[in-house]
Amino acid sequence: MELGRHMASLPTSCGIDFVFFDGEELVYEDPRDPYFLGSRWFARQYRDHPPKYRYQYGILLDMIGDQQLTLYQEQNSMSWPDTRPLVEQIWATASRLGVKEFIPQVKYEVRDDHLPLHQIAGIPTCDIIDFWYPDRTMRFWHTTQDSPGRCSASSLEKVGRVLLAWLREQKVKDTEPK
User: How much is the pTM?
Assistant: First the structure.
């Protein structure tokens, strides 16, 4: 949310959309219950009713407020040829800024909202997610202990600083639909 306050300071005429998805976790019995309700709907709308603009990239931020922030590169994000450069740029930006929590190594594959954005809408989308828990006693995800008190303002600031710096480096491409 804090990133939104900084968008007007970016030296670009390119638009930036913030999209918030819900329904990802609506799973009681897999495969009966659908995943990614919001991102699938968004991706279908984008594909079936193309807007006058085209998205250059999508960046999914998920679980980035962990007190022990560890951000490895997600396997799908690195395996897609159109998304890999995005991941490499973001992690290179983090390296230049000295943000060591961005680790330039693939550690896991995650089923997340970046899948329908890439597979249905064709938007190169990377997943920046802290899905690494070296200390198993600190794993609060999907428990009643997963609460705001477990979040870190410092972790959120580091991710925001990296993304803001990366955004400032971007060149606007021709994004008119073909």
Answer: 0.88
